[in-house]
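Assess this one:

_____
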Amino acid sequence: MRLVFDVDGTLLRSTTLDAELYARAFREIYGVALPTTDWARYRHATDRGIAEEAVALVGGDATAIPRLRERFVALLSEVARIDEMPGAGALVAALRAARIPFAIATGGWQAAARAKLRAGGIDVADAPLIGSDDHVARHAIVRAAIDRIDGDGPALYVGDGPWDRQACERLAIGFIAVGEDARALSTRWVRDFRDRDAFLDLCRIEN
């Protein structure tokens, strides 16, 4: 079994804060409002994909996207605390103790994801973390994360958005949905990670 986790809405309850600070950073750098914070309306629901499409929509300068990234990360770094998805930190620690290989595949930029995970108190320092710095499409990010995991066995992606499910369908891998709002996305679903045994039982189901 090779597990790959999303960050926002999966390991962390950060989706609202993430959208607010992304929109704030965009306005500060480009002087206009982000077209929408409904990520499903963008072709690629990733930090890089949203930036590239939004900048094109407002007629902005694409060469300023690195400044947008830096400002967004700076805003996130000022956040003292982000709530974890209940049980997430303990689950990650248990996986590490049991030597179950896992990676992080996030639509966020890597530095943004690391800032949020630090604020959430979740230690993933020894796990591969792939973001949208090098891959704009979610399925490519997940594929890259799987390739970085030492081990074999079926790969499973744990996420909360329709784009997560679509990436799994494209890669023909298993998908576990997390969170009340994600219940309809998969027959494999958990509200959170407090019942660790129930989550691990879902992981053991063959793809």
User: Anything to note?
Assistant: The longest strand covers residues 155-159. Residues 15-77 form one domain.
